[in-house]
Write a structure and sequence with these properties.
Distance between the termini: 55 Å
Low-confidence stretches: 15-26, 50-59, 262-266
Radius of gyration: 21 Å
Shape: elongated
Number of helices: 8
Structural class: alpha/beta
Mean pLDDT: 83
CATH architecture of the largest domain: 3-Layer(aba) Sandwich
Order of helices and strands: HEEHHEHEHEHHEEHE
CATH superfamily of the largest domain: P-loop containing nucleotide triphosphate hydrolases
Strand content: 15-25%
Length: 266
């Protein structure tokens, strides 16, 4: 039982045809339900099989139907806000999951990792299994992992609550004053490393520019650089401080026209 079975269990009825043969879903299907007065639309898409991905890399498709279904699935992501990455708890994580994650990240979508078939796992150690998932998909350690079973229905309905929680997080607005205080505390705890000219960058004017998903801007001096590791440090701090649960955060680094002195960090 895979994605389609999971959606049927969420809906409480068999709205999608289910087969024991993997990758039988060809056309994305939109299904809208109401939960806690919120309207949620699920898009059941075709999975990306290993065969299809190998063919894609060679740009020679032995199965035209599968190519079309993959293209439609990727286009369906363009309509989504939150992606539910359904993985089989009984199978190893491979290239197909990594390809899907790449597509999700490219579209800046929020994400829930659904570990399905959890009922079939003998040693149900969620901490160990989570470490395994994140070690193979290291760029989405901010995404929650939900363990459930489409077969038994175990914890399937809790996916709705996760969706609403992430939707709320996507729309969090942080005031300029709160961001200014946050930046000062972050700098106090860990100063940014010096750039290639042995100059500590000056960070200021930290603002949120949009929501859904959250995007921020941060200014540095005209001749300064800010290492990616420090941007990640700021991003992780934002996520923890302001509860940006299960959603990507973008920080745009802007260079001002002003050249700051070495000791100008605020």
């Amino acid at each position: 039982m895979g994605k389609s079975s999971l959606v049927n269990k969420l809906l409480g009825e068999d709205r999608i045809i289910v087969s024991h043969i993997p990758h039988t879903t060809r056309e994305p299907q939109d299904i809208t339900v109401t939960y806690e007065n919120f309207s949620i639309t699920f898009i059941d898409t075709a999975g990306l099989s290993r065969q299809g991905q190998k063919a894609a890399r060679r740009e020679k498709f032995k199965n035209t139907l599968e190519k079309l279904s993959i293209d439609k699935s990727l286009r369906a992501l363009d309509k989504a806000d939150i992606a539910l990455l359904v993985i089989d708890s009984l199978e190893p994580i491979g290239n197909q999951e990594q390809k899907i994650v790449d597509a999700i990240l490219a579209r800046n979508l929020s994400l829930i990792i659904i570990a399905n078939k959890w009922d079939g796992v003998k040693n149900r150690d969620t901490k160990k299994f989570s470490n395994y998932i994140y070690s193979h998909l290291p760029f989405i350690t901010w995404a929650p992992i939900h363990y459930c079973s489409a077969l038994t229905g175990e914890k399937v309905n809790k996916i709705f609550d996760l969706i609403l929680k992430i939707n709320e997080a996507r729309n969090i607005e942080v005031s300029d004053n709160a961001l200014s205080y946050f930046l000062k505390q972050a700098l106090k705890k860990h100063r940014p490393p010096k750039g290639k000219f042995a100059k500590t960058p000056h960070l200021y004017n930290f603002k949120q520019t949009r929501t859904d998903p959250p995007v921020f801007s941060l200014q540095i001096g005209a001749k300064e650089t800010l290492q990616t590791s420090y941007v990640k440090y700021i991003t992780n701090g934002l996520r923890a401080k302001f509860k940006f649960f299960g959603t990507p955060i973008s920080i745009w680094i802007e260079k001002s026209k002003k050249v700051h002195g070495q000791n100008d960090i605020e």
